[in-house]
Amino acid sequence: MVIASTNPMKIEKIREDIELPIIDLHSDRSQASLQIVKACEQYGFFKVLNHGVPQEIIARMEEEAQGFFAKPGSEKQRAGPANPYGYGCKNIGLKGDIGEVEYLLLQTNTPFISHKSKCISTDPNKFSYAVIGYVEAVRELACEILDLMWEGLGGPEASALSGLIRDAESDSLLRLNHYPSADVIDHPSPPKIGFGEHTDPQILTLLRSNGVHGLQISLEDGVWVPVNPYPESAFFVNVGDVLQVMTNGRFLSVRHRVVVNSYNSRLSMAYFAAPSLDVKINCLSELATPQKPPLYRSFTWGEYKKATYMRRLGDSRLNLFKLQPDDEKRDSFC
Ligand SMILES: C=C1C[C@]23C[C@@]1(O)CC[C@H]2[C@@]12CC[C@H](O)[C@@](C)(C(=O)O1)[C@H]2[C@@H]3C(=O)O
Ligand SMILES: O=C(O)CCC(=O)C(=O)O
Ligand SMILES: [Fe+2]
């Protein structure tokens, strides 16, 4: 165990020796689905190989993202400020959170992408073509992972989870993050925070990075585990708050953060799979029993999203929806 800190006033524990699960989607289906369930229960995080997202689609999206972040600040500002969508620099969200990051936060519906591309790129058709292709391919991967998960949990209706994000009104987002290299910000020691600790509010996040270190996940005891960025071809998957609620706490919505500690700049592309705003989020009936009654009250995704935006990045929003032991809704199963 190595002791390190990102805050001079606080000693943090970091564990470099944990191998996070890697799941090969070409392996036997029932084996892959059980591995996914185990990873979601243990860490709320895993990596997937043989994911089926074509390399040229990833490369095209990465090239557009790199091209955008390489522009002068004044040009990038044309796509900002992020309120919450668009270009943001250092300010994350609407509540004063700051990080060593610049980003583009985009809705994933075609009209939004086509419209927003006009202030992002001098070749908006090329930019929107790259984003639309990437979003479609990554959505397919997210659906495949959710189907495998649902099978592993013994769920009866084949596409119960994936149907939520296939919906044309789905509120899924794409976020392109760029963290400047440490030499640009003067090799800070302890390392600076690129993206402060948080959980992702949605169902599932699928993340790609350019192979530069920085992402860390938090174990339940508060110890930080650096996620090595390899294999570079993999997608990294994390459970979001909504999936924790739907699985009645069986899957963990993992806390994570990004530290800027590298000589190279990090580029990450996160797809946040979400249902449409009016979808009611309940725990799946198969996962509540008299011995394990529902932990959270039901809410719509729109209600949860609103609560998220009213709070700071690191706040734990799930607590607001927790049922108390004496709450009668706890006994009226999902
Ligand atoms: C400070 C905030 C930024 C955020 C909305 C929030 O109020 C709290 C959650 C943040 C987060 C984290 C995961 C995703 O990056 C994100 C897009 C999301 O859905 O929730 C961001 C929000 C944001 O940057 O707009
Ligand atoms: O950049 C990363 O690796 C993670 C970013 C992240 O957690 C987010 O955008 O919500
Ligand atoms: Fe995140």
Automatic annotation (TrEMBL):
<dbReference type="InterPro" id="IPR027443">
    <property type="entry name" value="IPNS-like_sf"/>
</dbReference>
<protein>
    <recommendedName>
        <fullName>gibberellin 2beta-dioxygenase</fullName>
        <ecNumber>1.14.11.13</ecNumber>
    </recommendedName>
</protein>
<dbReference type="GO" id="GO:0002238">
    <property type="term" value="P:response to molecule of fungal origin"/>
</dbReference>
<dbReference type="GO" id="GO:0046872">
    <property type="term" value="F:metal ion binding"/>
</dbReference>
<dbReference type="GO" id="GO:0045543">
    <property type="term" value="F:gibberellin 2-beta-dioxygenase activity"/>
</dbReference>
<keyword id="KW-0560">Oxidoreductase</keyword>
<dbReference type="Pfam" id="PF03171">
    <property type="entry name" value="2OG-FeII_Oxy"/>
</dbReference>
<feature type="domain" description="Fe2OG dioxygenase">
    <location>
        <begin position="169"/>
        <end position="275"/>
    </location>
</feature>
<dbReference type="InterPro" id="IPR005123">
    <property type="entry name" value="Oxoglu/Fe-dep_dioxygenase_dom"/>
</dbReference>
<dbReference type="GO" id="GO:0009805">
    <property type="term" value="P:coumarin biosynthetic process"/>
</dbReference>
<dbReference type="InterPro" id="IPR044861">
    <property type="entry name" value="IPNS-like_FE2OG_OXY"/>
</dbReference>
<keyword id="KW-0479">Metal-binding</keyword>
<keyword id="KW-0408">Iron</keyword>
<dbReference type="InterPro" id="IPR026992">
    <property type="entry name" value="DIOX_N"/>
</dbReference>
<keyword id="KW-0223">Dioxygenase</keyword>
<dbReference type="InterPro" id="IPR050231">
    <property type="entry name" value="Iron_ascorbate_oxido_reductase"/>
</dbReference>
<dbReference type="GO" id="GO:0009685">
    <property type="term" value="P:gibberellin metabolic process"/>
</dbReference>
<comment type="similarity">
    <text>Belongs to the iron/ascorbate-dependent oxidoreductase family. GA2OX subfamily.</text>
</comment>
<dbReference type="Pfam" id="PF14226">
    <property type="entry name" value="DIOX_N"/>
</dbReference>
